[in-house]
TrEMBL record:
The keyword Signal applies. It comes from Gluconacetobacter aggeris. It holds the Pfam family OmpW. This is OmpW family protein. The keyword Thylakoid does not apply. InterPro entries: OMP/PagP_B-barrel, OMPW. Belongs to the OmpW/AlkL family. Residues 1-25 form the signal peptide. Keywords: Signal.
Amino acid sequence: MKLTRSLVVPALAGLLALVPGAGRAQTATPSAYVNAPVTSDAVPPPPSRGGHCGLFETCASTKIGLGKGDFLIRLSALGVLPEDRDSKLWINNAAVPGRIKTTRQVTPELTFEYFFTDNLSVDLIAASSRHEVAAEGVGGAAHVDVGSAWVLPPTVTFAWHFRPHKRFNPYVGVGGTMAWFHNVSPAGGLVQKLNVGFTGGPSVNAGFDYQLVGNWFFNFDVKQMFMRMHAWANDRGTSSPFIKAHDSLDPTVVGAGIEYRF
């Protein structure tokens, strides 16, 4: 029995030595993986436009607010509101009671403005409006049509802006107005001929600019003009009475519009 065991054990050991990997623990060989391409949901940035900023865009290069060197052109809707504070009338050189009444009007306005400094600017407005003129309380008549006239009142204003380089920029100003009356038309009847003389006077204003987008701004402005109108109707020595009138027009001018900075 011992002999048999002594022969079998060496034989088995020899066989195990001939088998590859025998007597060693089996280890798993890691599998090889191939990485698939990964897709992304991110939107690629738009191609560069070389720093160009659109007309109605606010870009990094857009200057905020108004300041030195800025030039603006503004188009506004303008309300012209004559006050007719004080009137004097003469018929054939004799003073008579009564007053002049001038109608209100709405008209477009064009404005050019330049900034000398961050705070100080000068602007010129150009507008023309048509007004009806009447006499009230003359000779017992409640209302007498005198005629109509167009007025061209270019106004130069120097304004002080309180918040340069801010979107909201209020200001006050002072200036002067000159007024030419043109296309003057008599009403007929008592008034066969009508003339209105050149006039002018000082003006004050207040308003604000607000930056909307890019170089576009909204403007609101109120001006008070101080001026007298001198008018006369008919000629001396004719069958129609010679009428002369002085009237403190003193119009209040209210405007709102859109402006662009160049």
